[in-house]
Design brief:
The complex is a heterodimer of chains A (637) and B (108). Chain A has 637 residues and is an alpha+beta fold. Chain B has 108 residues and is an alpha+beta fold. Chain B contains 4 helices and 6 strands. Chain B has a 5-stranded mixed sheet with strand order 1-3-2-5-6, with helices on both faces. In chain B, helix 2 links the parallel strand 2 and strand 3. The longest helix of chain B has 18 residues. Chain B is globular and about 35 Å long. The chains are: A alpha+beta (637), B alpha+beta (108). At the A-B interface, helix 2, strand 1 and helix 3 of A face helix 2, helix 3, strand 4 and strand 6 of B.
């Protein structure tokens, strides 16, 4: 028998055996006080002077047995199984405090480590953490594991353990207890089921939601709010549960101050019951660029306490689309108002830069004959660096495929450099002299689906384009291209008209127009008649016009037949009786509906030629018939 | 089970005599439990913290009992100040205990 343990030999109380035992005990004790104490029933045990073992007296023995039973009973209330592991964490003992079926023993637990058992809720990381605890010889409490028993039921077990050391303080293993917490976990799951469902629904919402108490402290947020707070800067985005949202709005400064004040005031009004709903749109800056949010605040009342639910919805896409639509309208207005190509280019580049927050833009026109892109116009913010950059760009020429502009010209596709300091698409060395900035947006200007030029914008930061932005640049490129093409045609026409006028001025003396009744409606440059004398009259109504009757008949027949006529010659007798000679050409004019509207034509003073001809004819006549007397001048028209 | 108890501040120890005692018991035997309770009451009432008490379970430390010549439990040994004295039993005889500890009971 171990000396540290008492001799537990229960003796029936009050029996003869007990009395005999007491007499035997008394014989062992020599001292008077000890004997008296034994007889008075005040002694629990006698120490054997030879071995040191304690001999329990019956009453003490019964008390110890009762205590042990009671302790075991209490232990049974505290846990379901007691176990021990060796130094390799293998189970060497596993005993149940009750007779209930074991959650693990049925699997044959002895000789196995905990992680060898079929446990389905522990990940590799969880096991690594647990094993680390064991290696550190720490006490672990309430390790909750889940497994499916042989009956197919899910059981939850809670395991606690402490390390065991021998007398030399060498680690021997672990011992501990296991409790079946299946019922508790199932009850918890039942309680949390509706809550979890509600929570899952709220977390699944795309809108960011934060619930505030009456003082503005954050009571709860959903997953979208957490993501929003993580990825964005702006009013109240860094506010977590327990922090004061109103305080964060009040503390907003810089560009966010106005938004912060407005939002805080709106929330206070809603909580105070002054309004049922508050709506506010505002912008936030994020690593991916500027985003827009529609904030709405609703009043909540629970147990008489007012609070507020704040919803933030991402309206960036809608807002960007609005801005781009506005940009397209602005570009169209610029083109409509522009008097010249140069002013159109400048105003379009400016409106794009101002809308997008870019620093400058340049237009390179494609010179098809030379096969190069030439600098053709620019606009930039009033900054020395930008002006210097634009100045350097003047005279810049790109061949298709060379440089950003050349690449865009060749591919016909827009090119975005979000951050020229990184990325392999464009080297910093190549980008810097070309754009002057880290970001660039270069897109083609097209007409009839052909690239006629390239617009290149530069900025410190250019956001990644979305589909709507790409659509907008295509639209703007096409609008501008169409305008430039039309403008080119108009200018060509103007040049052509100018040339024509010049030639006309050289070949004719005046220009005239008639209405459908052959009355003059316009005469330019005619010195033969005064304008007032001509307008509203037909040719044959003009005074002093000398044409033979056959001539008029022939001319009127031509006009009635809407024929073109050429070199219709007539004479006008002045007050001195001298004749001046003229020749006119004309052609019918039709409107868009192909209705005859009159004639237009030119006239030439042929007096010199005609007089020379007359003189020549007269000279010839004199030579042929010198004796024949002259009968006077006659002219046939 | 060995329980050492030291009562009283150091400043009190300068002026008052500290009584050093050892109580030998048997686990949670009825008389042992009673002896601990009786001795605690006496110490609180009469020694005012000027004592050091060590409670030794002879089932765990039998050699301590042999070394001290303890024959039965519970037994109280007064070790200091001299003379050494021993009281056996559950210490329900308060006057006997006080006598053994050298304390004059003002009530008697």
């Amino acid at each position: 028998m171990n000396s540290a343990h008492p001799q537990l030999n229960p003796v029936p109380s009050g029996s003869g055996i007990e009395r005999d035992f007491q007499k035997a005990i008394l014989r062992l004790v020599k001292g008077g006080p000890e004997r008296q104490a034994i007889e008075a029933g005040q002694i629990d045990a006698i120490v054997d002077p030879a071995s040191g073992n304690s001999i329990l007296l019956p009453e003490a023995q019964r008390a110890l047995i009762e205590r042990k039973v009671g302790f075991r009973s209490l232990i049974g209330l505290a846990f379901d199984w007691y176990w021990e592991q060796d130094a390799c964490y293998r189970f060497v003992s596993h005993r149940g405090a009750t007779d209930d079926a074991d959650g693990m023993a049925e699997e044959g637990i002895i000789g196995k480590a905990l992680w060898d058992l079929s446990i389905d809720n522990m990940s590799e990381v969880d096991w690594r953490t647990h094993r680390q605890q064991l290696e550190w010889r720490v006490i672990f409490r309430d390790l909750e594991i889940r497994r499916v028993d042989r009956a197919g039921k899910t059981r939850y077990l809670s395991i606690s353990g402490e390390p065991i050391f021998d007398d030399r303080n060498h680690f021997k293993g672990y011992r501990g207890i296991t409790r079946d917490i299946t019922e508790r976990k199932q009850a918890e799951a039942l309680v949390q089921q509706p809550h979890r469902f509600d929570r899952a629904v709220i977390d699944a919402l795309g809108a960011s939601i934060v619930v505030l108490d009456h003082a503005g402290f954050v009571l709860s947020v959903n997953q979208a709010w957490r993501d929003f707070a993580t990825n964005h800067a702006g009013v109240g985005t860094c506010v977590a549960v327990g922090a004061n949202y109103l305080g964060a709005c009040d503390a907003a400064c810089g560009t966010e101050q106005v938004d912060g004040m407005a939002i805080a005031a709106g929330i206070r009004q809603v909580i105070g019951g002054e309004r049922a709903l508050f709506r506010y749109d505002y912008a936030c800056d994020s690593p991916t660029g500027r985003t827009w949010w529609a904030l709405s605040v609703s009043r909540m009342v629970e147990n008489g306490n007012a609070s507020a639910a704040v919803f933030c919805e991402d309206i960036t896409e809608r807002k960007r689309a609005e801005l781009l639509l506005r940009l397209e309208f602005a570009v169209a207005r610029c083109l409509a108002d522009a008097a010249t190509t140069a002013s159109a280019l400048q105003s379009v580049i400016r409106v794009i830069c101002e809308t997008q927050g870019w620093d400058c833009g340049r237009y390179f026109s494609l010179d098809r004959s030379a096969g190069v892109l030439r600098f053709d116009g620019s606009w930039g913010v009033p900054a020395a660096v930008v002006e210097e950059f634009l100045e350097k760009s003047r005279g810049m020429v790109f061949r298709p495929g060379a440089g950003l502009a050349g690449r865009v010209c060749e591919s016909g596709q827009p090119l975005w450099i979000v951050d020229g300091t990184r990325g392999a698409a464009v080297s910093q060395m190549a980008l810097a002299p070309e754009t002057g900035e880290h970001g660039a947006c270069v897109f083609p200007v097209t007409a009839d689906e052909k690239v006629i030029g390239v617009l290149a914008f530069s900025a410190g930061h250019v956001a990644e384009p979305d589909d709507r932005m790409l659509q907008a640049v295509r639209s703007i490129g096409s609008q501008l291209g169409g305008f430039l093409l039309r403008q080119r045609s108009v200018e060509a026409l103007q040049r052509s008209e100018m040339r024509f006028r010049t030639l006309n001025d050289l070949t004719s003396d005046w220009y005239w127009e008639q209405d459908s009744n052959f009355r003059f409606t316009q005469v330019v440059g005619c010195s033969a008649f005064g304008t007032a004398a001509i307008l509203g009259k037909t040719h044959w109504e003009l005074p002093n016009v000398i044409v033979t009757d056959e001539g008029w008949a022939e001319h009127k027949a031509q006009l009635a037949a809407r024929w073109s006529f050429c070199d219709f010659e007539f004479a006008i007798a002045d007050s001195d009786g001298k004749h001046a000679y003229y020749s006119v050409c004309g052609e019918p004019v039709y409107d868009d509906a192909d209705t005859f509207t009159g004639y237009c034509g030119t006239g030439v003073d042929i007096t010199k030629r005609k007089r020379a001809e007359i003189a020549l004819r007269e000279s010839e006549a004199r030579l042929r018939a010198p004796a024949a007397p002259s009968t006077g001048r006659s002219i046939r028209w | 089970m060995v329980r050492k108890r030291k009562r009283g501040g150091e400043s009190d120890a300068v002026t008052a005599t500290v009584v050093v005692m050892a109580l030998y018991i048997t686990d949670s035997g009825p008389n042992s439990v009673r002896a601990v309770a009786n001795l605690e009451a006496i110490c609180q009432q009469h020694l005012k913290g000027n004592y050091r008490l060590e409670i030794i379970d002879v089932l765990q430390y039998p050699l301590r009992a042999l070394a001290a010549g303890i024959v039965v439990t519970p037994s109280l040994a007064k070790l200091s100040p001299l003379p050494i004295a021993t009281v056996v039993g559950n210490l329900s005889d308060k006057s006997g205990v006080l006598r053994a500890l050298g304390i004059v009971d003002s009530a008697t």
